[in-house]
Design a protein that fits this description.
Protein name: PE family protein
Number of helices: 0
Helix content: under 10%
Distance between the termini: 43 Å
Largest sheet: none
Number of strands: 0
Low-confidence stretches: none
Structural class: little secondary structure
Radius of gyration: 16 Å
């Protein structure tokens, strides 16, 4: 009755030729009645010291069980020599449960990736926090938006911060 969705697989690193990191896999869905969603996989890194590249996006957090269960966290975006990958969005919970937190955006040599949005709660539960944006280069990634709290009871998630 109680089961947790499997975590999504991490994205493969981008080859030196195309330099694009693989996207992280989505987290698995929790069991029908009671179960938490699995975490999304991290995005792969893109590019090397001799080739430009873009980081892969983080995977989406898995959904919680239909009745009770929190959403899984979104995966982090991968590092990119040009731009970092976007963080994955937090998973949707069941009727009772917290939204998943958004994944952090990846750092990039020119621009950081945006943080993923937090998942929205449904009836009872807190919204997930937004992921922080990626940094490193001159253009910083924006933080993700925090999810909304449940209709009956719950707090809104905190917005992620801009990359540094």
């Amino acid at each position: 009755m109680l089961s947790v969705g499997a975590a999504g697989g991490a994205g493969g690193s981008g080859g030196s030729g195309d330099g694009i990191g693989g996207d992280g896999g989505a987290g698995g869905t929790g069991s029908l009645i009671l179960g938490a969603g699995g975490a999304g996989g991290a995005g792969g890194s893109g590019g090397t010291t001799v080739s430009p590249g873009i980081g892969g996006a983080g995977g989406l957090g898995g959904a919680g069980g239909l009745v009770i269960g929190s959403g899984g966290s979104g995966g982090a975006g991968g590092f990119g020599t040009i731009t970092g990958g976007a963080g994955g969005a937090g998973g949707k919970p069941g009727l009772i449960g917290n939204g998943g937190d958004g994944g952090a955006g990846g750092d990039g040599g020119i621009g950081g990736g945006a943080g993923g949005a937090g998942g929205n709660a449904v009836l009872i539960g807190n919204g997930g926090n937004g992921g922080n944006g990626g940094g490193f280069g001159p253009v910083k990634g924006n933080g993700g938006t925090g999810g909304t709290g449940g209709l009956l009871l719950g707090l809104n998630g905190i917005n992620g911060t801009k990359g540094v």
